[in-house]
Amino acid sequence: MMRPDGGIRLRAARPGEAGVLSDLVMRSKASWGYDEAFLAACRNELRIAPEDVIARRTVVAERDGSLLGVATLEGEPPHGELGLLFVEPRVIGTGVGRLLWQEVLAQAGQVGFAQVTIRSDPHAGGFYLAMGAEPTQPGRSWGTDGEPGDALPVFLAWPIRPEPSWSVAWSGGRRTVQVGNVAEFNSQFTGTRGSVEPDHYSCLATFCGSSPAMVLLPHAVGDWWLREVAAVLGWDDQVECLTGLAPGGRMSTAIQNRPELLARIVAGEELVLPWGRTPAFEAIVPAPPGVLAAVGRYESKARANALFRALAPDHPVHTRCCTPPSGSSTCNAPECSAKTVATASSGTPRVGGQAAQQLELLTVLGTTQFTAADRQR
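Above: the chain's sequence. Below: its structure in token form.
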């Protein structure tokens, strides 16, 4: 669990560190100004026992061998609880707590928790609000009026889900520049040039990968929307969102008309992912040979269905919907509309039905990492 952030390393705690970590917790608690009697009353509750280190999913932050903070994730799915989160007083406010918090939420997602409850020290309430946790008592100003004996503020947070396999396939695990050129893409098939529809549908470009460096959208989007999306998707605070770039729908032209922006995304290390490949986008980031032709052939759902029949033997972990009725692009079987399937290898949930066909098609067409067999097809 390496995090190249100021030399800080996150790792699982060891049972032999229980005493040192218990002392760290008490020093951190004392930094809020509690008296000795109150701290003595808290000691047993805050103690970390060697035999509990693993069961409590204890994680530590360290730098150069020095322990800087500790956090625990407790309970069993679907509902977990943040047991402890404390950092050394000298590093409070330097980002150590944020790293531990993010690690706890990531672990919660991996374990399968649906939500995490935080029973916070009154002085730490502001921290959890800043981290995006939701108070169960809205309107109270935690952290300014907390006194020993106050009822603990309670917050709820939602785990960071593991990155889905389709996202890894799409981006190769790299950070991305995600371009919402939906109207431009659709105009290839409708014959309408410069269409402004769909507009905010372009916002779905944000879901093309879970670790974007930049998101480019044609229409202006409110800050509230960006904040909510960032919180739900677990983005860090380094994601740059540029909106309102192309109200007329011609995203590729708008990008080319901004030389500084064009230079940034072309010269950067991030993978540039459009919503869909278009001839106009080729001037920005050319696709591998044959991709545009494939887009033209397989935008039809009937042709997409035939494509997956051809690919299926070499990709046994993918499940496709039953064949649509003749002359129809949609399967009428009720079970297909909400069916979920799992891969044989990882058990990762996948969406079934037409959504699965479209998702797998986008994965094939959206990545630059084609196999030789795929190119022949």
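Residues 222 and 243 are 9 Å apart (CA to CA).
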